[in-house]
Amino acid sequence: MTSPVRDVLEAYVAGRVNAERLVITVTSAYYGRDGGRGTRDGLGPVIEVIDRASPGIVELGTVQGGAGFEVRLAERPFPKQWEGELRRAAEAVLHAGERPGKGESRATVMGRIIAAVRRLFTASA
To answer: I need a surface site. Which of 12, 58, 68, 114 has the fewest CB within 10 A?
Structure first.
């Protein structure tokens, strides 16, 4: 995921950006000519919420003199009742790429692994 997309996702989760701005940024990255395979896979959960919440919220047009799509927000705002689910999807996308040590110590990760192994043996006994 590109840094500008990540920045808008983080700003939306923090409440500094509205849903319409997030929708435009994510759909532009997802459907645009720079949307590589990794970008599409990573943003899938957010795109799914956008599509379920308001099919047709984004209009795709042709680009003059090139490949790809021009993405425009339709005339209506993103439905307020879906903003909670949109926020959860944005958080999930942001946290999907985190590695141990980024906000979580190795000791914490090791503790979680040990607890999982213990549950495995306890369940089989």
So the answer is: 114
What pLDDT, in 10s, does the model give residues 52-90?
Answer: 887 777 777 777 777 777 777 776 788 899 999 999 999
- What ranges do the domains of the chain cover? 3-98
Q: How many CB atoms lie within 10 A of CB 112?
A: 12
Q: What pTM, to 2 d.p., does this model score?
A: 0.64
CA distance 110 to 66: 50
Q: Where are the alpha helices (DSSP H) in the chain?
A: 3-13, 19-31, 37-53, 83-96, 106-124
Angle subtended by helix axes 19-31 and 83-96, to nearest 10:
50
What are 44's two structure tokens? 């899938």
